C-alpha cells in the first residue's frame, strides 16, 4: 500500500469517524473490500476496541477474513455494515459499478463508504488493470447506486494521484458540521533520555545564530515557517510572516507582522493547490515540522511550490549525530527523525537544486536554493520516492553522521549566500542564473577555505 493511500484513508477517518457515534458505540462493523494486507492495511486506523474489522478479498491471504466467491456479491445482510472501505481495488474490478452497488446495499443508513482509486499512474495488473478515475466517475457511481457523494478530492501526489470519495445513503441522517480533530506532528519525547552518546549535540554555530544572520542579510520580504514550535524564529522576521504548526496558535510574544495557524502542515495545505499563503512569495522558508520522511518531503514540495527563484529553504535537524537520533522510532530527547533522508533524495531526484548542508548545532541544517515552483518531478513520483528512501534505509550513512558533507556556517559564508540571493531577487531572479551563481559561490568559498 502506498503512503498517500493510508494518509487519505486516515483523513477520512479523522473527518467522519473520529469522535463520532461510530467510534463511541459498543460495536461498529467495518468491511474492507480488497482487504488483503499487501505492505500495509487500513486495519491499523481502526484500532479502537469498538471496531469489528472484516477484510474481504477474492483469494485467501494475510488480513483476509472473508473470501468472496465473486467481487459482485457480498455475503452480508442489507444495511448491516457501519463503514465500508475500498482502496486500490476498483481499477482491478472489471465491472466496478456492480461491486459499488453491493457496498451501498450492505451499508447502514448512518454509515459511510470511503473509496480510494487511482486517477493516474502506470499499468499494474492484479490480475487486470482496467480503469483510472476522475471526480465525475464518483458522481456517476453515486447516481447509479442511488447514494450521496458527500465529498471528493484528488491527491496531486503521484504516480497514482489518489481519487478519494466519501459516500452515504440517501436516507442517511443529516451530517453535522465538525472541525477536523487536531493531529500531533510527531511522537512525544521518551520519559527516559538516551545515553550521553545518543543525546550528543554537535555543530560549530547554533541554529538561531544562522537564522539571525540569514534574516539580517537576506532581508526577506515575506517568511514562512512550516512546523512552528516556538516564537524564536518567527520573532526574527521584520516582514509579513506565517507560522504553521499544531501548536502555532498558542505561541506568545510574537510581533504584529507574524500570523500563525494551528494546524499540521498536511491539514493546512489540504485542498489549497497553488494558492499563495504570503504576499509576496516567501523569500525565506524554515522547515521544522514532522520528522517522518514522507512528511518532510511533502513539506519541501509545498515550500517549493510557494517559492520564487531567489527563495531559500532552510531544513532543520538534517544531520543527526547518532543513529538513534536519525531513527524513525523516537528513543532520544534530541531527535532528528528521518529528516536526513531528504538530502539524499533531493541529491538523486532533483540534481538541479543547490544543496548546502551546514554544521549547525544541535542537529545540522540543510539549505536548498535554486527552487523552481513549476517543477513537478517530486509530485509525480512522490510515492515511488517515499518507497525508495523511506524503507530499508534506516541508518544515516557515515557522511551524514560525521558531517563530512557539511560546511561551517560562518557569518561570512551565510551572509554571502544571503547577499547573493537578495541581489538576484532585486535584479529579477531567473532560476538557472540563481543556480549558477550559488554553485559558483559555494565552489569559490570552498577553495578559499582550503
Verbal overview:
There is one protein chain. The protein has 450 residues and is an alpha/beta fold. The chain folds into 2 domains: 3-169, Vaccinia Virus protein VP39 (Rossmann fold), CATH 3.40.50; 205-445, Vaccinia Virus protein VP39 (Rossmann fold, 3-Layer(aba) Sandwich), CATH 3.40.50. Helices cover 29% and strands 19% of the residues. It has 13 helices and 16 strands. It has helices at residues 3-16, 21-24, 96-106, 135-145, 207-218, 265-269, 293-305, 341-349, 377-380, 382-390, 398-401, 411-426, 431-449; strands at 28-33, 51-57, 66-67, 81-87, 107-118, 147-154, 162-169, 205-206, 223-226, 241-245, 258-262, 284-287, 312-316, 354-358, 360-361, 365-369. It has a 7-stranded mixed β-sheet, with helices on both faces. A 7-stranded mixed β-sheet has the order 11-10-9-12-13-16-14, sandwiched between helices. A two-stranded parallel ribbon has the order 8-15. Helix 12 runs antiparallel to helix 13 (431-449). It is elongated and about 75 Å long. The N and C termini lie far apart (48 Å). The model has no long low-confidence stretch (mean pLDDT 95).
Q: What's the order of the H and E elements? A: HHEEEEHEHEEEHEEEHEHEHEEEHHHHH
Percent strand equals 15-25%
Query: How are the strands of the largest sheet arranged?
Result: 3-2-1-4-5-7-6
- Terminal Cα span: 48 Å
Largest sheet data: 7 strands, mixed
The helix/strand class is alpha/beta
Tell me, what is the CATH class of the largest domain? Alpha Beta
What is the molecular shape?
elongated
Per DSSP, the total helix count is: 13
Name given to the CATH architecture of the largest domain: 3-Layer(aba) Sandwich
Portion in helices: 25-40%
- The poorly predicted ranges are none
From the 3D structure, determine the CATH topology of the largest domain.
Rossmann fold
Rounded mean pLDDT is 95
**Can you tell me the number of structural domains?**
2
The CATH homologous superfamily of the largest domain is called Vaccinia Virus protein VP39
Gyration radius, in Å: 24 Å
